[in-house]
Amino acid sequence: GTGEKGKIFRITPKGEGAVFYDSTEPHITALVTERGGSLLAGSDGTGKIYRIEPGGGAAVLYDSSYREISDLAEDGRGQVYAAAVASGAGEIPPPAPRILVHSSEAEASIAPRDDTSPVKPDGPALGRDRDRDREPFEAEFEGGTMPSAPARAVRESGGAIFRISPNGRVEEIWRSSSDVPYALAATADGTIYAGTGEPARL
Question: What is the pTM assigned to this prediction?
């Protein structure tokens, strides 16, 4: 599965690759082959699970309310498990805004002056020229953002795990508002192992 353009490639034993399925999703993030030979694909963008037949025909198996299907697994009974991630989960926040400033003396020197005030020819150089070579230092703003970088809206986090039976019945078996499920493994008897982050847990 690929990103930016959600395509699935099939690669032959000789290493020759070709597009097997071209979705309308931004990313294909999870793949698992069912016992019957069909391929299941999870997407990032609209959080859908596609069932793709060996001949290339595809249909939506499940349309979740989450942004991403991060992993898929099948147990020995033919039940499929899907890890779903909410919008905003796992995203890196933007860095704190920074701005280059001069010392307080320099700031005072470039304050607006009254153009009607006389300037002595033999007086000191204007502040803007005097501080041209002064080394700036970097100051970090906290508790807000600059006008050019508006704050992002706070979005929900966390995720869930769904179980899909062979007859298509979908059941939510786990949900968290803080832990984000990224990896799944299923045993033959239906036991599920899930890897989450952040922090990393099993």
Answer: 0.66
